[in-house]
Amino acid sequence: MKSEMSRIVLGTDWMIAVPNLASWNIAPTKRADAILNGAVEMGINSFDTARMYWSEGVVGHFIRKHPLGRGAFRIISKGGHPSLFRRTPLTRKKLLRQLDDSLRALGTDYIDVYLLHYDDPKVPAQAIAEWSVEFLRSGKVHNVGYSNVSLARLREFRASLREANVVPWVSNEFNALPAKDGERWRGAQNISRDRAYVDYLRENALPFLAYSPLGRGDLKRCIDRRLAEGKPEDERKISRLISLGQKYGVPLPVIALNYVLQTAPNFHAVVGTSKLDHLNEDMRALAFQISEVDRDGLAFPSSGQGPIMDVG
Asked: How far is residue 286's CA from residue 278's CA, in Å, rounded to a whole number?
């Protein structure tokens, strides 16, 4: 599936709208509009939001008043996130209600990509796939997919969707940094070390949206924390990342983003920032290519690649 979305997608989870409606909201209009306008000027046409984020109203308001019109933009939204206070089973009724709420908040008739925010393994994959097809046929969404989904469940979803000829999007954490042991939170999926999962996405040409492509927060702080843990495998990967930044003459975030985007032509990266200079730097990841050998060496570094260099 060839996506029309920009390779870099602007994350909007910090743009909390009060109330969460496109028709009007009181915060954080000026700051959010500056980033959204700047992103469009840089060539970004795609925005990532979710019912959980309370940012749909800001995104919708921006698109409604932009002179390019709705058709120029791609909206990714998500529903089905479990309650933070009480987990209840995922149901068709709940997901459909959240989809309608998202459409109303966004002030649009359709969502370009609608993702199940979190899989519920207790619900049969066949049932969730049937809901996905129903949403597609309703015209309320143009593409469907699954976030925080295991490879085993993704295979089940694809098998159930095959008859309807639906190619799902997939979204998990994926970056060039060493993955931390254990779940980020219950149900979260980090495939940064999962070669089988990444190969499956590439071999089947599945459109993929990487969240946290620069790690969890500031990249340098993430690197410093990993180095402090003293794990040889982590040290090798970080050393490789630093040396590639020096080789290609670009900052570490640019190498890290390029790594994600170069994994496959239909891999996209969600970048969530409130600073235009950071976003402008991130866009440099589209302007060059690291070699396939360098990319593979960063993905699965071998031992004996030299000492750790100063992050700077």
From this structure: 14
